């Protein structure tokens, strides 16, 4: 407790000062510390590890509206998720709350690093769950040049169920809400851990999604060149979607020749590989969700989704805004045709399609 008090007193909320960076490095940069914190957390808070609840997992390729979807679901009040306030003690959220208290400082909304207009504060839900998987089985799927599919054993799944129970400790009647794109590498394991869960896999027009990924990659390359801590931060969270530590999904377990990540074709190929894999490896508990349909037919799609997860009807009008980028970069015709063919097949499978 004295050690934690020492660290906390030197970890200012707000900008990442030297004390805050040290805290993140100590907690997130050392698996032994993470595992120890998790063991202490389980001992102190005895989590409910039931697998019967209807938890909700949002997982797909980045830039398909997953954050907006998660936030709208979170606002319903039925779900509990990790938030920025849990950083960096992701594996010991209840212990961290006891030590740090429920400070309401720094609740001002600020635009997130993506520069996409979405604003966040300490109480915003975010994709922080991957810290668990990286800590306990990172070597199984995080490779030097990419991320490969993995299957979690029963011991890991028991720990994951305990982890979810710890997150729900203060809201036992709620279900867990996860937004974690890396979960597409372990969908069968998620389904085994929580057979009553629903897994939503969003997708977007391939060229639009690939272009958005390329733009984010360029932004984060610059950010990481200017800020070494920002690069470490994303690596600790195993967020390798873009930036200086970009590592693509490698669904066949091998890496192809080095590709030009500044080329739109590279990101369109990632889109093709990702959704081809998902169409052939989706567990029964998973559904596809079209970003375009969610925006164009918001109320219809949301009504069908709400019924599937037993959400109370929203009193406010549901509306999602579609982002369309003008794209002038050339891509090979065969690549574009292949992606469009996959997209058409996904649309047919998407929830909310009549």
What does this entry look like structurally?
There is one protein chain. This protein is α/β, with parallel strands linked by helices and 354 residues long. The chain has 14 helices and 9 strands. The strands form 3 sheets. A 5-stranded parallel sheet has the order 2-7-1-8-9. Helix 9 packs across helix 10 and helix 9 packs across helix 11. The longest helix is centred in the middle third of the chain and has 21 residues. The N terminus is likely disordered.
Rg, Cα atoms, Å: 20 Å
Shape: globular
Within the CATH hierarchy, at the fold level, what is the topology? Rossmann fold
Low-pLDDT windows of residues: 1-14
CATH superfamily: P-loop containing nucleotide triphosphate hydrolases
**How many domains?**
1
Please identify the structural class as seen in this structure: alpha/beta
Instruction: Classify the beta-strand content into a percent band.
Output: 5-15%
Fraction of residues in H or I helices: 40-55%
Q: Kindly report the spatial arrangement of strands forming the biggest sheet.
A: 2-7-1-8-9
| Average pLDDT figure | 86
| Main beta-sheet annotation | 5 strands, parallel
Number of strands: 9
Order of helices and strands: HHHEHEHEEHEEHEHEHHHEHHH
Q: What is the CATH C-level name?
A: Alpha Beta
Oligomer: single chain
Summarize the structure.
With 354 residues, the chain is an alpha/beta fold. 47% of the residues lie in helices and 8% in strands. The N and C termini lie far apart (57 Å).
Task: Write a concise keyword list for the protein shown above.
354 residues, globular, disordered N terminus, 14 helices, 8% strand, five-stranded parallel sheet, two-stranded antiparallel sheet, 9 strands, single chain
């Amino acid at each position: 407790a004295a050690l934690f008090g020492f660290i906390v007193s030197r970890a200012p909320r707000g900008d990442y000062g030297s004390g805050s960076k040290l805290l993140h490095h100590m907690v997130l940069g050392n698996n032994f510390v993470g595992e120890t914190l998790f063991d202490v957390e389980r001992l102190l808070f005895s989590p409910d590890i039931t697998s019967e609840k209807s938890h909700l997992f949002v997982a797909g390729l980045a830039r398909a509206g997953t954050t907006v979807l998660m936030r709208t679901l979170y606002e319903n009040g039925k779900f509990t998720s990790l938030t920025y306030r849990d950083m960096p003690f992701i594996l010991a959220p209840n212990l961290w709350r006891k030590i740090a208290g429920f400070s309401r400082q720094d609740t001002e909304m600020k635009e997130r690093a993506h520069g996409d207009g979405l604003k966040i504060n300490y109480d915003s839900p975010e994709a922080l769950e991957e810290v668990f998987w990286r800590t306990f089985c990172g070597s199984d799927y995080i490779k030097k040049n990419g991320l490969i599919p993995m299957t979690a054993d029963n011991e890991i799944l028991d720990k994951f169920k305990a982890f979810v129970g710890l997150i729900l400790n203060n809201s036992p009647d709620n279900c867990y809400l996860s937004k974690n794109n890396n979960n597409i590498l372990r969908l069968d394991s998620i389904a085994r851990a929580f057979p009553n869960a629903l897994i939503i896999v969003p997708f977007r027009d391939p060229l639009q999604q690939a272009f958005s990924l390329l733009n984010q990659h360029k932004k984060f390359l610059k950010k990481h060149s200017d800020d070494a801590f920002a690069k470490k931060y994303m690596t600790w969270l195993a967020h390798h979607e873009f930036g200086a530590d970009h590592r693509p999904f490698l669904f066949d377990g091998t890496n192809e020749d080095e590709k030009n990540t500044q080329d739109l074709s590279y990101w369109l190929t990632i889109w093709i590989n990702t959704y081809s894999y998902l169409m052939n490896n989706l567990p029964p508990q998973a559904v596809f969700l079209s970003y375009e349909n969610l925006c164009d037919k918001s109320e219809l799609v949301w009504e069908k989704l709400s019924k599937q997860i037993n959400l109370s009807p929203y009193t406010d009008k549901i509306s999602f805004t579609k982002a369309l980028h003008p794209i002038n970069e050339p891509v090979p015709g065969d690549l574009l045709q292949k992606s469009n063919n996959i997209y058409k097949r996904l649309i047919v499978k998407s929830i909310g399609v009549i």
